[in-house]
Write a structure and sequence with these properties.
With 112 residues, this protein is an alpha+beta fold. It folds into 2 domains: 46 residues; 49 residues, no CATH class. The protein contains 4 helices and 4 strands, in the order αααββββα. Strands 1, 2, 3 and 4 form a 4-stranded antiparallel sheet that branches. Helix 1 runs antiparallel to helix 2. The longest helix is centred in the middle third of the chain and has 14 residues. The radius of gyration is 16 Å and the shape is globular. The chain starts with a helix and ends with a helix.
Length: 112
């Protein structure tokens, strides 16, 4: 059972950009719980929160998205229990566009 105090601590540590491994070890929660908690927090955020228009936009706006893709992995308990976090970021603003959590299958890639 995860207490409200632990949840608040996890949120603060995530804002400080502490590694996921460091968070789940220090707070005493599981990696799977931590990843699900992150997904729930991002889904609860307001829809327009992620994108802020850049100041001084030009008169002509091209309809093109440049994204950077990256992947992170860690394991929970045993190395056989691998979890992958796929991250897509806007190249210009560095805002996170999407981050599905799962395995390294085509289904996870398709969700991205």
């Amino acid at each position: 059972m995860i207490t409200e105090e632990q949840r608040a601590l996890v949120e603060r540590l995530l804002l400080e950009r502490i590694s996921l491994r460091g968070i789940y070890r220090a707070v005493g929660v599981g990696l799977q719980w931590l990843l699900q908690f992150m997904v729930a927090r991002f889904q609860a955020a307001p829809e327009g929160l992620y994108i802020n228009p850049a100041g001084g936009t030009p008169a002509v706006i091209l309809q093109r998205l440049e994204a950077e893709l990256d992947e992170l992995w860690s394991f929970g308990g045993q190395k056989a229990n691998r979890y992958w976090v796929w991250i897509a970021r806007d190249a210009a603003t560095r805002h996170v566009i999407a981050f599905p959590v799962g395995d390294r299958s085509q289904d996870s890639t398709a969700r991205l």
